[in-house]
Design a protein that fits this description.
By secondary structure, the chain is mainly α. The protein has a single domain, classed as Rhodopsin 7-helix transmembrane proteins (Rhopdopsin 7-helix transmembrane proteins, Up-down Bundle), CATH 1.20.1070. Helix content is 69%, strand content 0%. The chain contains 10 helices and no strands. Helix 1 crosses helix 4 and helix 6 packs antiparallel against helix 7.
């Protein structure tokens, strides 16, 4: 591959679609082999298994207990595979590790793309099983994606000149360690404190990147990410509120839209970092 020639836009999309299709085939085969809910026997139920947390009706006799909430997680997988593929193409173009552009440091694409795949699988596990362990991985993966995006922004803002490669490696390693700790100690911290705090921090970092770079090419992605996550959260709250009032199955698609729109929002934040120029030092 010519290191100075970027890949065509369609190739990463085709690769991501192919990987997602393979994941879909494996998903179909797995749950056809184990069609009954007994696959989850012996596992403690999570909140969604004990209470009517979502509008979609739990099918406890099936191996996939919330079919729509489960399959919609393929949106996270597709975005994650796309970002991983972009990172692979970046690495093939022999970046020298200088500068603070996304293309110069494929490790950030691997981190964010891998976190999105982790989120897709963790959330899929939770909604298929409605178990406590699935809930732990679902929430832990949410932390991982947002933390990775924060780290990418912090790197763009603060990486010292001439030491960008070292700074990138230290940040990525630190995020991975934090991801493990957040997963292990999930039940000792409140998701409703940690996630909003992370979301506010990410919003601040994105705004600082815009202000420091004075590059408005990424503004559309930043605005899109904001409105997409606002819409996603609105549908999520409508869904949980519907279930809370006992209208069983009345709004089964609410949490599905949360998955689809939040995946698009997270992908938009990544795109913002990718297209924008370096903030001034």
């Amino acid at each position: 591959m010519n290191p100075n020639k970027p890949p065509s836009r369609i190739r990463p999309i085709l690769w991501a679609t192919g990987f997602t299709a393979i994941a879909g085939v494996l998903y179909s085969i797995t749950f056809r082999i184990f069609p009954a809910g007994g696959i989850w026997d012996g596992m403690a139920l999570g909140y969604a298994g004990l209470f009517a947390e979502y509008g979609e009706t739990n099918r406890m006799e099936h191996s996939v207990r919330q079919p729509w909430n489960t399959i919609s997680n393929f949106a996270y997988l597709w975005v994650g595979f796309l970002i991983l593929t972009l990172g692979w193409f970046d690495a093939r173009q022999a970046p020298d590790g200088s500068g603070r552009r996304m293309r110069d440091h494929p490790g950030f694409s691997y981190l964010i793309g891998g976190s999105l795949v982790y989120l897709g699988l963790g959330s899929l596990f939770y909604h298929a099983s409605v178990t406590r362990l699935g809930q732990q991985f679902d929430v832990g993966a949410c932390y991982a994606v947002v933390l990775g995006l924060i780290a990418c922004g912090v790197f763009r803002l603060l990486a010292p000149e001439g030491k960008e490669r070292v700074a990138a490696r230290v940040l990525i390693a630190g995020v991975i360690v934090a991801d493990v700790l957040l997963l292990v100690f999930k039940w000792r911290i409140s998701m409703w404190v940690v996630l909003p705090s992370m979301g506010a921090t990410l919003s601040l970092v994105v705004c600082l990147c815009l202000w420091r770079s004075r590059d408005w090419r990424g503004l559309g992605y930043a605005v899109s990410a904001m409105w997409l996550i606002v819409a996603a959260f609105g549908f999520r709250q409508l869904d949980t509120g519907w279930a809370r009032y006992g209208i069983d199955g009345g709004m089964w698609w609410g949490h599905t839209l949360w998955h689809l729109l939040s995946a698009a929002s997270l992908g938009s934040v990544y795109a913002f970092y990718r297209v924008g120029k370096e903030p001034s030092r």
